[in-house]
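Comment thread on ticket #2218

A.B. wrote:
> Attaching the input chain for the structure job we discussed in standup.
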Amino acid sequence: MKKKQLVTLGLSVFLLAQTAIPVCAAEYPSSPTETSSYTSIIVPRMKYTARVATNLIIDTKGKATVTASVDGYKNITSKVSILAELQRYQNGKWTVVTTFSDSDNSHRVRLYETHKVSKGHKYRVVVTSTAIHNGKSETRTVTSSTSY
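C.D. wrote:
> Ran it. Output below, let me know if you need it in another format.
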């Protein structure tokens, strides 16, 4: 009898844990919500750009590998371009070491480049992407984390 009670109790706990609490999601706002006392953290969805990403890896021999990508919305975005700036922090400011770029008449583009860098400095990548639909464009800028 004790085994049957344990099984029943275990099954009851399992079923209670699986019980979903109803949640409603609001529609995406047409414009950001802001008040005068603070800057809103709500950001509107971009019309032609789904995702922009970048990464910087520097190996022990000083080879910097820059990756960047932009994804537009399929069947909406007709052209995308990407400009990646490899930057070094020097004398209190970021300076451009080199740039890489690519574009494509589709909804996505990827960038993979390498460059030799000097040891002892901080580096980052700043990516500016442009997505176009019917002659209208939107631009987004993304910055990688800092690498040494």
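A.B. wrote:
> Thanks. Noting for the ticket: The radius of gyration is 24 Å.
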